[in-house]
Specification:
548 residues; alpha/beta; six-stranded parallel β-sheet
Amino acid sequence: MKKKVYTLLVEHFKNWGISHVFGIPGKSISPLMLELENYDIQYVLGRHEAGSGFEASGYALAKKTIGIAMGTSGPGGTNLITAAGQAKEFQLPVLFITGQPSMQETGRALSQDSSQFGADLVKMFEPVTLFSARIERGDLLYLYLKHALEKAYTGEKGPVHLCIPFDVLMEEVETFYLPLPDHISPVVSPDIDKAISLLGEAKKPVLFLGKGAVMSDAYDPLRIIAEHWGIPVVTTPGGKGAFPTSHPLYLGGFGLGGSKYATDYMRSGIDLMIVVGSKLCDMSLSGFTADMEPEKVLQFEYDLKFAGKTIQAPTQCILGDIHYNLTQLIVQSGASTKEHEVPATRAQAAAAATSQMESVLSAGTAFRSLRAVLPQEAVLFGDAGSHSFHAVQNFEIIEPGTFFFDEVFIAMGAAIGYSIGAKIAMPDRPVVCVTGDGCMMMHGTEISTAVNHGIPVIFFVLNNGRLDMVEKGMSYNTGRSVGAVYERPLDVSLFAQSMGAMAFRCENEIDIKTAVQSALQSSTATVIEVMVDPQEIPPILTRLLSLD
């Protein structure tokens, strides 16, 4: 039996359990969009293709499945590229589908040409995806889709891209079905015994957790390993959600948004640094000095690319599926949970942080106020900017896996879309987007998407009238800043109201708590504008800028 290419694709989406597809319409992908309605799959109309790509990624993250984002040919496709890059950094299986006016007419002048004769989307997507291809004949759909799915799901997951011309979508081909390849066995390391030996020999180790620890859902294995060997835990900005911040072994963050306890311990003579899921980028190691260099590194990663490149100490890599290899480490070593006590100095410092009086609202107080009224299962997405580093430093993680932030690709406004897609995937959990006024002016119009589709995300927006991270970093390092302060700042609450969202403007702790409590009861998107001190110094100044 033969079916149209567009019908076969949508049938696959339905069989994969996809309830929502994200994108912006255009002629070259219109057959797909019309067919979605026939299969009762909701099409989420974005306000910008990048926003739609972020939403598909948030959906994939929260639902633990593949996300689908579609854009038309030409600029519709190029607008999706940033979202693909962010999905790759988050290791998310997202299928990006773009159009092409016609395969048969390729080589002639075409409006919004996406072939090798125009803006070649296949080549443009290659650096930010695991697979990018153009399906030039309908009978190639089976193999190309199979390749794309296997790349998206094998080892370290990630986004893939298929460019499908309009006339190819309209072709009839033999029916087939490809299940999602989640049956693929995890990549197992043969070197677990070496890891056990290193842990047994270590006198002063540290667990250094990155975003990969979060994305691999390795929360329970990490807790067992930390408690069994009594290893203090430090997180990178992206690893913030991997470990409960109240746990006795947690020292805080390192890098931007880091803590004094973590910094002091890193200087105390580490003999084994156990890195889990971190590329050890400049944001993660900001402030790292020669006296922090460990004697040895034990690193759990999917990929060898950056292991042993930044820290020069001898490195033992445990390659493969992070969660599985950590679990095998526990099984083979017989590790088990143990109780530990919170150091008195940390408990006293935490109490002091909550009792400070302020004349102008600080970001730290804003996040402590947010935490005070949010349920522990609430999921936060941190956007690109100093607001997220304030959250890294001040927001308490009660339940691991409830804070997502990227410190490598860092697309401004991405968290706005991620939170929308995630809320669709988990409607029964509160979802909060932590963002700033600068990010709002990048992709804040996606709030309209949330309003129009009845998606009650809470947007927690710190407003200080500037691109704070850039302005403060530039001023600190060079004595001046250029082009980072808005002459006419955005009125976030009015902007939100213009799109139909419920909006609050907060200037103190009581305002914040009242607004969040109202937002938790709302059936529509809520924007909470928090007016914070524009002169407050964010925890990012270890990242130096040199003009020499």
